[in-house]
Amino acid sequence: MNGRYVVGVDGSTPSEAALRWATERAVRQGAPLVLAHVRDPEAGMMGDDFARDEARRSSELLGRLLEQLAPTGLDVSSTVLDGPLTAGLAAFVTPADTVVIGTHKVGFLQGRVLGSRSVQIAAGVPSSVAVPSANTRLGSA
């Protein structure tokens, strides 16, 4: 792999699963890892206080995750992108990258169809997309 693993992070359980999945692969391959948080595109329209709170939450989330990943020795960076989600990711990634996003869809029936957001991202970014579920165990493909 010549590109980066670009992981969508938002602090949810699915994004944590995506981060574990991408971190494991980045360690194995020596690939760079980028934590990408996409800000709510309407934050500024909800007032200055909301926009400042959103910026603070983004910064705290990325700072906490970067600190947790420091012991891995990986080339890890972070970025805050402006939404909407698919457009923000599409403008940032390259064809050599792999975008990794989490999903709440698990189990036989629910897992048969990926969520609409996953499909939108897969259709809208110029790179490969991986969608591990929260049930994905480390070491599994």
Low-pLDDT residue intervals, each spanning 5 or more residues: none
Which descriptor suits the 3D outline? globular
Tally the helices: 4
Helix content: 25-40%
- Cα(first) to Cα(last) distance is 15 Å
CATH class: Alpha Beta
Q: What is the correct CATH architecture?
A: 3-Layer(aba) Sandwich
Task: Tally the structural domains.
Answer: 1
* Main sheet properties: 5 strands, parallel
Find the CATH superfamily. HUPs
Rg (CA only): 15 Å
Q: From the 3D structure, determine the CATH topology.
A: Rossmann fold
Chain-averaged pLDDT: 84
Strand % is 15-25%
Order of helices and strands: EHEHEHEHE
Number of strands: 5
| Strands in their spatial order, largest beta sheet | 3-2-1-4-5
Oligomerization category of the chains in this entry: single chain
Content-based structural category:
alpha/beta
Descriptive overview:
- The protein has a single domain (5-130), classed as Rossmann fold.
- The chain contains four helices and five strands, in the order βαβαβαβαβ.
- The protein has helices spanning 13-29, 48-69, 85-92, 116-124; strands at 5-8, 33-39, 76-82, 98-100, 128-130.
- It has a five-stranded parallel β-sheet with strand order 3-2-1-4-5, with helices on both faces.
- Strand 1, helix 1 (13-29) and strand 2 (33-39) form a beta-alpha-beta unit.
- It starts with a strand and ends in an 11-residue tail after the last strand.
- The mean pLDDT is 84.
Q: Which key terms come to mind for this protein?
A:
alpha/beta, Rossmann fold, 5-stranded parallel sheet, 141 residues
